[in-house]
Amino acid sequence: MTLKDIPILLKGIQVYTEKNMIEKGYVRIKGQKIMEIGSIDQLTNEDECEVIELPASFKAIPGFIDVHIHGVNGADTMDATKEALDTMVRALPKEGTTSFLATTITQEGKQIERALINAGHYIEGQQSVGKAEILGLHLEGPFVNAKRAGAQPIQHIIDPDLALFKEWQELTKGNIRLVTLAPERPGGLEMIRYLKEEGIIASIGHTDATFEEVNEAIEAGANHVTHLFNQMRGLHHREPGVVGAAFLRDELIAEIIVDGVHVHPEMVKLAFKQKQSEGLILITDSMRAKCLKNGQYDLGGQEVTVKDGKAVLEDGTLAGSILKLGHAVKNTLTYTGCSLMEAIQMAAVNPAKQLNIYDRKGSITVGKDADIVIIDDNMEVYMTICRGLTAFRKDDKNEND
């Protein structure tokens, strides 16, 4: 598939722009960029475009950005192969994800290195338009707390090691963009200070940190929380913990897995009331079993059983999710009563701002990348455009491979 010179015109739909919603609008795309946005009554030069006319009730919203995803459709970042990443970038547009951070898991050092080298090479030279874009890497572990390991293989957990991190970042050609770590462990604050200096997101996660230790991490430069509520010191009336700090400190933006399994719907509502749309990022934390049948799968060398929408280790510990980001958006609307604009903030705007790429992604704005999702009357993904090319269209047998 080659990039077309002729502009694409999405016509007659509700368009959710950076600041408002155009009831009956259009979006003109040329090359990889959004060229023009407006109301249908302002439209000119329609004959010069490939026109895609859609029902007036359908909505054009910015492509979703998943900053925490391990795998999908049988593939995982830790497979350390081009084929695995090819599978991920093809599969994710079906759920509305147009860009993401390929996420690792705690594992033996050489296995992590292979995954980092593979992803760094892919990011630098093997990406193409019309597929989801890998924006960088999320290093989840091994610098976490064994007390809050969750599905992170405990035997490979180590304390934050700045020298080792620098080696790994070099292997990725500078593409690690987010690091989950336990700030209370030896070397934690030192690593956070370094990450801050380098413009890398320092995220508090898989941690037993106290409220005071989280405050120290914030002062050192941490500004992100990995999957709020899960594998962290919870809220207590005599020790606010990580959850209390996430609620009280505006410096922290918190990821949340809205699948109805990892976090109870009422707790999602509580988090939304506390943090509002500006303080949360919707993620999937999904594993390779997403889009596949119930059965046995692998995550970080551990056997995971997937059944009835839940992925668990042998001891019953939750092991990532099989959540699609489009469904996370739909669930959030249901659980919290938020507006679609607020859901867009959590699924597209906030991750783009956190990654410092809001100048090119995260909203439907002239000059930005043409990463656009069309959702239908049931709030399901109907069509996804990745940097100007159609990556998915429901019932289209010729969808981009």
From TrEMBL:
GO terms for molecular function: metal ion binding; N-acetylglucosamine-6-phosphate deacetylase activity. Its cofactor is a divalent metal cation. Binds 1 divalent metal cation per subunit. The active site is at D285. Residues 61-388 form the Amidohydrolase-related domain. The keyword Hydrolase applies. It catalyses: N-acetyl-D-glucosamine 6-phosphate + H2O = D-glucosamine 6-phosphate + acetate. GO terms for biological process: N-acetylglucosamine catabolic process. Its EC number is 3.5.1.25. Zn(2+) binds at E140, H206, H227. It is an enzyme of class 3 (hydrolase). It holds the Pfam family Amidohydro_1. InterPro entries: Amidohydro-rel, GlcNAc_6-P_deAcase, Metal-dep_hydrolase_composite, Metal_Hydrolase. Pathway: Amino-sugar metabolism; N-acetylneuraminate degradation; D-fructose 6-phosphate from N-acetylneuraminate: step 4/5. Keywords: Carbohydrate metabolism, Hydrolase, Metal-binding. Belongs to the metallo-dependent hydrolases superfamily. NagA family. This is N-acetylglucosamine-6-phosphate deacetylase. It comes from Neobacillus vireti LMG 21834.
